[in-house]
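Protocol step 4 of 6: structure prediction from sequence.
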Amino acid sequence: MSASRRSGTTDELGPDEPEPPERDGADLLAALLDGMDAALCAFDADGVVTHWNREAERILGWSAAEAVGRQGLAGWAVRSADAEEVEARLMSAMRAPGRQVHEFALLTKDGGRVLVRTQSAAVRGPDGKPAGVYCAFSEVHAQIDLERSIALSESLFEDASWGVVLVDADLRPAVVNAHAARLLGTGRTAVLGRPLGELLSQGVEELESALTHVLAEGAPPAPAEVWVAVRTPEGERRRCWRSGFLRLASPLAEEPVPLGVGWMFQDITESKQAEQEASLLRFRTNQMHRAARAAAECEDPAEAATVHLDFALAGFADHAVIDRVAGGARSADADATGPVRLVRVAATPSGAPGPSLQDGGAGLPVRYGEGHPAVQCVQRAGSVRSSAGSGPAEEAREWALARQWPADTRHALCTVLRSRGRTLGVVTFLRGGGRNGFERSDTTYAEDVAARIALALDLAGVVKAGEDG
């Protein structure tokens, strides 16, 4: 229990008179001093100890009853050889403005020594003159730990090379560092208090689920990779953030009370995309190798062409068709000799997945219009990409059916079949609405597959001509 030296009273109290209110104030002061996290002692103008709280008793072992009323610290809380210097430094706060900070060693009751850091300041009386000194102190290592924690916190929110966001229990940003604000595409203050759904157009559900889990269960054992789409004035940007989460709890509560989540993240979009591209390239190279080995075992070159198509389809497109130029191959200078007519050679099933099926051989032209992508592909002798756009589903369905494609088609890539300087036809790869449109890297892969299919079809034509001859 903390104690303080109180002055006596000179007036007698009658039997029915209430106790002076000053005592209640003194009890309140004692309770406040005992509840402090820092050790505190106070001296009057003569250097006599007037206050000593529980934290001071915990650090040094001297109780309030043993400390209050002593003249200075010499011989019990400070070595006699050091007492004069220590007391002079403490009492000098009476004549100095503001607070003074010192470090020195104090003695514990069992004879040990503790290095403490003190903050002392003058206590002024009703007349404004110095009436004593109060001194708050703590063990140096505890103070250093606190300063390190504060310094770390300030560094994270000013100089960190990764994003740091403190999210409150309502899953709204409460503190954001400069790097995180840049990754979110806005200013630091503009982010505060806003729902994550206003900052991100994709990935919000996954991110909020992770934050909720951390609030309930604690930090996950490893970082998580979250794909998001950030709303910016220039439009949406799809990014991949490697994120770590920490549950924040109040150190002042008896039981852990979650204050929110510390969310730290780095933008790894470029490395992730490079990793995905390398993985995709390895898969496609392996597929082409397997297709070449399987096609080499086909006696019929036309069957070899469909083998190449089937292997290329895996992970690349949902459907594919091969159309051949009617009436024979088309030379480079034949683009002005008449309209392009294409005959179906093979196609993948449009319902359930399965191997490509060759056409029955009727030789009837496919009903492609003049501006059809496959026709443009033959005329240009180059690849053509086409997409239904982002319109209603019914418009996309009409767009696909008008081009003689399955109704669920949303994206198409037509690649010309060329062999020995002639255009043999076109192979068309089709994707449904659940996939992204074809990109430049997809075009390169499709052209490699088309070159192999063209060689097989050209060989099939040569074999057929030999058999007919």
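Step 5 (inspection) to follow. The first helix runs from residue 21 to 34.
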